[in-house]
Write a structure and sequence with these properties.
The chain is mainly beta. It has one helix at about 45-55; strands at about 5, 15, 25, 65-75, 80-85, 95-100, 100-105, 110, 115-120.
């Protein structure tokens, strides 16, 4: 399956890898070990949301109905942040609500899938 390209709402075009980096879920901190060859990287949360709505909701991209990591983090306070991913089953984020300075996480997202992207060359 070839790479799919999408144009984001900001006008930027990205190329989406044709498959998940790993067939199995991987821990969030393992993405740090991924070598970004040829410009491949983790998508930010906006890119991941648009991959969900532009590709997955149209049945494109061979995504699983599962959690995917972004490179984005939600800063709760100066010393506490939450990694953000999107559930491709329903489009929800993993940091669903905040109460008293603590993040309420759904499904305990210690593991999720990784789909790499890269900026499309002009």
């Amino acid at each position: 399956m070839p790479n799919v390209s999408i144009t984001l709402s900001n006008g930027q075009s990205i190329e989406v890898a044709p498959h998940d980096y790993s067939k199995d879920k991987i821990e969030r901190n393992q993405h740090l070990k991924l070598l970004a060859e040829d410009g491949w990287r983790l998508p930010d949360i906006e890119e991941l949301q648009q991959m969900y709505s532009i590709l997955h909701m149209e049945g494109k991209g061979a995504f699983e109905n599962d959690w995917y990591w972004s490179k984005s983090r939600f800063e709760v306070s100066w010393d506490y942040s939450v990694d953000i991913g999107i559930n491709f089953e329903d489009g929800s984020k993993n940091a669903s609500s905040l109460a008293n300075g603590h993040a309420s996480l759904t499904n305990g997202l210690g593991e999720a899938r990784v789909r790499l992207v890269r900026d499309k060359s002009s």
